[in-house]
Amino acid sequence: MKQTGEIWQLYDFQGERVLDGGIIPARTAPAGRCFSGCAIMLYRFKDGEVEYLFQRRSANIWNGLKWDVSTGGHINYGEKAIEAAIREAHEEIGVNLKPEDLEFYARFMRDDSMINLYFCDYTGRGDTFDFNKEEVDSVKWVKNRDVEAFWPNFKELLQSDMIFKLSLQEYNEKILKKYGQ
Questions:
Q1: Domain containing 66 — which CATH number?
Q2: Residues of the chain with pLDDT under 50
Q3: Which of 48, 99, 119, 163 reaches 20 to 30 Å from 80, CA-CA?
Q4: By the 8 A CB rule, do 21 and 9 touch?
Q5: β-sheet bridge partners, residue 142
């Protein structure tokens, strides 16, 4: 795994930021603390169907050559979740988003991590992505009806994440209503 030297923000298990310091990247958090991250699912409504953008991780990093959410990562020390989401979108796939582009969906706890999930309507914004080859190998739009068949291609953590799977299904219904379907 590539070490970035970033200092990640720690949280307690009630979702409150710990202000007594961050830590250098590691896979375990101190007792009573957790890491926090953000994830964005870009979607578009095209030809009467919902499509989600997924990224394939670069070969040289953790979960290399596996498919993942549109964009996401850890929250740096002192950073808010939405700021981290916007930063990660720009760093990973070259997308410039504003806070009003993102809809907060939910916060999930998993082992020593807390993930803030956002959705972003990317309908009509085009297909030009300037992704960071150090982190992202490629991106792909997947129709909602094909997500189930695509599921085995995801990194292991997403493959086993039923909450994420249910979130996509639930949010898909919201998108369809938004577009009058």
A1: 3.90.79.10
A2: 1-3, 24, 26
A3: 163
A4: no
A5: 52
Q: What is the CA radius of gyration of the chain?
A: 16
Query: Which has the closest alpha carbon to 6: 30, 32, 35?
Result: 35
Tell me the three state secondary structure of residue 38: strand
- 157 in any annotated domain: yes
C-alpha dist (Å) from residue 31 to 12, 18, 22, 37, 126: 9, 12, 14, 18, 45
pLDDT at 77: 76
Strands (E), the chain: 10-11, 34-46, 49-57, 67-68, 71-74, 102-110, 113-121, 136-143
How many domains, the chain?
A: 1
Q: Which residues contact 66 (CB under 8 A, 6 or more apart)?
A: 56, 57, 153, 154, 155, 156
